[in-house]
Design goal:
Helix content is 41%, strand content 10%. It is mainly α.
Amino acid sequence: MVDTMSDARAAEYRRLEVLTGPRRRRDWTDDDKARAVAESCAPGAVVSQVARRWQIAPQQLFTWRRRARAAARRAATAGALSFVPIVADASTPAAEPDRSQAAIEVEVAGAVVRVPSGADAVLLAAVLRALRATAA
């Protein structure tokens, strides 16, 4: 048996490194990500300080914020109104619209919108936005 006290190698300097903190690659739950994003979006919050508290890089927090915004946009557009195409009844002949009353004609996405004078501007803007969105 070798006595460690008299062993020549035991007298050498040995380096021992203790790693503290989180491991290099972590799996974050969606709830943790949401809490970190919410904390970073609070009024007066500094992203780098929030990232330091969560022990992540600020770039990672910015990525989570960007993904959260994209998910919110997708959720908002999923609940948006959708339009049904207009189908003319074949039994009645299509009447030609009276163009003398239309003050403005706008053609968007293959549809012609004739706007009489005095039309509701808010409604017109909503219709044109919806037509433009369907064209894209």
